[in-house]
Each structure stands twice: as structure tokens, then as C-alpha cells.
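Progress against Task 2.4 (sequence-to-structure conversion) is shown through the following example record, which the project officer requested during the mid-term review.
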Amino acid sequence: MGSDTSFGTSVSSSAREQLQQKREQLWMVVMLNDDYTPFDWVIDILIRVFGRPHDEAIAVTKSVHCTGRGVAGVYQRAKALRLAALAVRLAREAGHPFTCIAEPFIPEEDDGGSISI
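C-alpha cells generated for the chain above:
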């Protein structure tokens, strides 16, 4: 019985394809800065809608304020779109021009296997 040397390559290739598909499904919700939405309101949304701990919510809000954007979280595509829409709806109901968007998650480093979120 001969050995199939392509088996190892095919499994590795399949694992890479699965990892790529998983990465493509991940989207991040990005909060965008404006000059009118209160700092405390953004912190509250990060806690209530995105489930971030208070300290992380403050850090993300500072990032939004200082750099113009901050990542509220990384989720499967459908959940990211749903949470972004919910946050914008709550902002409009509260009379704030706050905006957040969902965009594909692209890891900063491609180490060939791990995704840190």
C-alpha cells in the first residue's frame, strides 16, 4: 500500500482555507468621532450594547476622541452589522450625531494561524 504524500498538503491547505473563511466572516464595529456626542454616552453604549467592561469602555472612548475612531468589538458579520445599527439608532433617539460602522476585520499580524480579538 503506497503512501499518499498529498494528504498532508491537502489537510494543511484545507485548514488554511477554513482559517481564511473564518477571518472573512469577522467584522469589527468601529466608532467614529464627532464633536457633539457626550463622552459618557459613548461609554454607556460600549457597556450596554457591546458588553465592554467599564475600564475598556473608557479606553475605547478615549481612542475615538484622540484618533477619530475606536473598535467597539469584533463579531461575526451579521452581529457586527446588527450592533452597529442598534448603536446608531440609540444615538438618533438620544439626539446625538454619533456614528459607528461595521467593516471587515483584518488582523494586524498574520502569524499563520491565530486570530486575537
